[in-house]
């Protein structure tokens, strides 16, 4: 009887994996007003704050290197609603993303600006599938170590949502990420290189 139970579990697991691979969500596009604000910001006191797009909503997640985090959700009036951590509880953290009119993050009374990185997009074939890669290096000519992130095949794009690709270069370490979602990076690159008007948030 034991082998039957094992076989049943194996069949169910395979069926579940197959169903997940068929029904897993695609990489939903990040709205322009969110993509333009994505980046890591260095505050006046030297601390770093990262803004990343959420995987399941048109909103932002801020993170500190010590693990503190929260969500920023824009309401119908264009104001940012703050939520603590991964909960729906209101967050009193004073944080305001930048925009074209004021291109800097405000965090607890401190101003933050995005450091410049050297970035390069790549494409290459692997196991019959075209993969998209993104290399981010700290500025300067000095040699720098590079971390290669192996993301796996989750239902979200490492090139769009992964914050280590900004956190590591901000500490002088290059970062190389790869994903099978080639269009995801293209969308992010478009947002990063397009110009913005004074009435809209600055693009990254």
Q: Topology of this protein?
A:
Blueprint: H1 2-23, H2 32-35, E1 39-43, E2 48-53, E3 60-63, E4 69-74, E5 80-84, E6 95-96, E7 105-107, E8 110-113, E9 117-126, E10 129-138, E11 146-149, H3 158-161, H4 164-170, E12 174-179, H5 182-193
Total number of strands: 12
H/E element order:
HHEEEEEEEEEEEHHEH
Low-confidence stretches: 1-25, 181-204
Q: Biggest β-sheet: count, sense, barrel? A: 8 strands, antiparallel
The structural class is alpha+beta
Number of continuous helical runs: 5
Could you estimate the helical fraction of the residues in percent?
10-25%
What's the number of structural domains?
Answer: 2
Distance between the termini: 59 Å
Principal-axis shape equals globular
Strand order of the largest sheet: 5-4-3-2-1-8-7-6
Q: What does the radius of gyration come to?
A: 19 Å
What percentage of the residues does DSSP assign to strands (E)? 25-35%
How is this structure best described in words?
The chain is α+β, with helices and mostly antiparallel strands. It folds into 2 domains: 32-113; 117-193, no CATH class. The chain is 24% helix and 32% strand. A hairpin with a 5-residue loop joins strand 3 and strand 4 (69-74). The radius of gyration is 19 Å and the shape is globular. Mean pLDDT is 74; it is low at 1-25 and 181-204.
Quick overview:
The chain has 204 residues and is α+β, with helices and mostly antiparallel strands.
Question: Key terms for this structure?
Answer:
about 200 residues; alpha+beta; four-stranded mixed sheet; 12 strands; globular
